[in-house]
# Entry
Amino acid sequence: MGEIEGTYRALQTPGARLGAHPAEGVSTLEPGQAPSARMARTAARAQEKCFPLRVKLLDNSVETFDIEPKRDGQVLLTQVWRRLNLIECDYFGLEFQHVPSYWIWLEPMKPISRQVRRPKNTMLRLAVKFFPPDPGQLQEEYTRYLFALQLKRDLLEERLTCTDTTAALLASHLLQSEIGDYEETLDREHLKVNRYLPHQERCLEKILEFHRKHTGQTPAESDFQVLEVARKLEMYGIRFHKASDREGAKINLAVSHMGVLVFQCTTKINTFNWSRVRKLSFKRKRFLIKLYPEVHGPYQDTLEFLLGSRDECKNFWKICVEYHTFFRLFDQPKPKAKAVLFSRGSSFRYSGRTQKQLADYVKDGVMKRTPYERRHSRTRTSGRTLTADLPKQSISFTEGMRSSGFPSSTHAFFYSFPNSPVAPPCRPDVKDSSASLTETQAPHAEMPAAERSSEAVEGPDGRQAPSSGPPALQPCQGLSVDSPQPSPSTRKSPLSLSPVFQVTLGPAERGSSPLLSPVLSDAGGTRMDEEEEPKHKCTGADEAYFIAKEILATERTYLKDLEVITVWFRSAVVKEDAMPADLMTLLFSNIDPIYEFHRGFLREVEQRLALWEGPSGAHATGGHQRIGDILLRNMRQLKQFTGCFQRHDEVLTELEKATKRCKKLETVYKEFELQKVCYLPLNTFLLKPIQRLVHYRLLLRRLCGHYPPGHRDHADCRDALKVITEVTSALQHSLVRLENLQKLMELQRDLVGIENLIAPGREFIREGCLHKLTRKGLQQRMFFLFSDMLLYTSRGVSGPSHFRIRGLLPLRGMLVEESESEWSVPHSFTIYAAQKTIVVAASTRREKEKWMRDLNSAIEAAKGSGDGALALPGSTVCTPPRRPSDEVSLEQESEEDARGAQGSSEGPYQHRANTTVHVCWYRNTSVSRADHSAAVENQLSGYLLRKFKNSNGWQKLWVVFTNFCLFFYKTHQDDYPLASLPLLGYSVSTPREADGIHKEHVFKLQFKSHVYFFRAESKYTFGRWMEVIERASSSPGKAGSPKEEA
# Structure
């Protein structure tokens, strides 16, 4: 990270409360001796020097503080924090107006008299100084309440610009927080007296409409929803500083957690991430940003902006220094030594705690939480309020959320997503300008109380009654009337959440950056305490029953995957008229018959399982405790679709060609991939039909292995296995070719600097992270091994979603040797190519063995290819100006950095960070072609209970495991996941005694400090989850001993 000019003050003592009064000295009076009259007069004169300073709080009340003007600003800040009993005080500051529309932050280390010209006549005001990218990082309910008040102020002052619909939604949540549940007469009276929006009259009806849907929402929940909506807006936390560029064009500068932002009016036109910035400085009115040489792209090395005056320029520079220190540094660096004779530059430094230090301080519980009062809240009893009507800080926010299904986001990975007020494929009217990565919120959370009660009714014991059945899906604009609709078993009630929650699945969001290890919230799902345990409907230990349940669960997921193409993607292309008619016919004539077949198959399996689980009298003869007859009949029918399966190769190829030819289709394709329903790359869903056949074969083998030869269901299962084995054998070559083609297409989009990666005969072998030895040491690189070449890349300058090609090495004539002893670098080996030699190091010995094995095998295969070897795409490699390979020092991001980087702006097309290429980069691991092939058989779905982090409660979630990743849903009917957890690098085991888990069928997932506990319903399902996760997380393509060495 480049150095940001300015100095920093080290904390005096760990955990010390900032701003504590310094010791005034040691008394020399004897015990019982009173101060003299002279000393009393001195004290009185000192008291006279103090004068009252007025501070306007966020609730618009005014407090007065007696402060001596020569005292530092920290003294006033400390008094404010103490009076408010504010624990997370470092997020806040005091600001005052220097000239109209020019606000300045009160500096803690500078005397008040040198900052405020006329203190007696100046009104300071409390304000949020640092806006975190995710409100879940705010650990105190009181802090979230103050943040909501800040956003209320920003709305009224037109700082938080947004559409009328979004503004009305924010105002409705603020209204719910302040006066409680909806009552039209009282609402209208309140809105006449109190203003939330500058043009409140034109949004009045929308505010009332939204407020009606918040019935039962507690003030704490309303605050959280205000933050959830606001954080996705482009103007969230933005404070403009007017400037102009070198050409004299008027612009606005701002700073956020991600870096320095440039706006034209209210449109963001550029973002200079902290990782790109080497130095920030100012000279008179000129504000200078010096970038790293490699990352300035089309810009010059140093960017210059002109502000209105030197004071404005210095003020903005100070804010940048503080933001950089607060969000980017884990600890405060040591202050610079003072110059002996001369000093250059400003002595300003950030004097508070960093965000990490503040989080650690709050977790340690140094400050005692006390109740606080909401000044505008009026007592209205609600069935979901935490206390009578005033929330207390001593009550955990996440605990309060659980009963309602609201997401806590305490660690930032259950984020808000829209629930459309109409049928699924229809888009909301308003789309927030900031995107978020794999960030979703429980769909149940935002439903009006009336709809929630119809979906799940809680009895006195807290258990939920089953729903009365969802209504039929409404047709949407853009969806063909004769196009397939979602199956009845997968339909669900349309939810009436505001359209402003539309968020695309990019970095968030998003987030907003690369997803490394999402942390599941302790809310957003059904809570089950120790007394509330799920009871199995089938008490027998018959493994066949649980295999049948696995068939049912995975079939539900598979049908949802098909709907991504047949319903959602069809709707997108029809609405925009983006796909040529011949391609439309080719695509849907092959996928629609398969979809219709599986809808019927799913209904049969559901009916059979319902009878299997029914009362014992219903199947006394055991006639319904079988599944083989259904499987045999449907496997025979499925054999008739072999022609459709074989044409999927053509469909995938033609779709790729069409996206290159037709810009409109390419745009629709990319935009659709960012939608929450498309939780995997779109072309991955085209592989699902053939992959499902392989899964059927695996499940039938399990059934045949379970049944003894004389069992009445054994013959049908054996015949069904024979049929599906014939089909999969005939399609095996097509599946391998399809998987390779899909992977090359995915990499073509992720890699910058190479064209025509998809070439006849080229096969993908392995991708993963290695460290390349340069003159500046080991540099992180992403390597891609193909059948004819080895590519290595670095993170692209256009953003974290792409990797830029740094080198291309042909396999012909390549030699690989171990080199640990030569370079003294653990797990290193040398690659000798025709024109270049590189030394690389793996993260573990096992990773090194995998790479060396695959490299040697690929080199031998390339030798045997003879003169017909593939032509390397060297001419298509984009060659930027040549620089030494070690010129750029790539910054290693921690998980917190990566989540913070989710707010980075990369334009509308942001990557999905749970793809293997991005997970390998952050987990320092690799994945081979064999791993991808094995993952096809290791797909699983079903309900699991996840243990809450800080209590004994368990949360029921529908979990889908595919593509080395766990996807979490509230129920199997949901159209998109709440969150995702890539499992590459995770270890799976049973809990130890120290974990304090005393339940059956519990497994533990762990990656570094991230630990999750999940509980299955039976021994069989527990074993299956352990099996598939272990195969995925440990990477099946092993080399050598399974024991991993550090």
Notes: The mean pLDDT is 74. The first strand starts at residue 51 and ends at 56. DSSP finds 26 helices and 32 strands in the chain.
